[in-house]
Design a protein that fits this description.
The chain is 77% helix and 0% strand.
Length: 73
Amino acid sequence: MDQRGFVRYAVIGFGLLFLSFLVRGLTRLVFPTETAVLLSLPIATVGFCLLVYLFVRATLDAVGVWEVERADG
């Protein structure tokens, strides 16, 4: 993974978290709260896990264990 891929995955992770809040809010207009939570939970979980992975990867890059390739140009 290079720096561009890292940023792309970070944007996707934050986008998934935003989408989960959007799904939860909009489905609460139609369905009960429990159903809205069940529909948004998988999206939020994937986004959160992606961001945790990126955090660990950035930390390992900072200490020099697993480097993120530098984008040239």
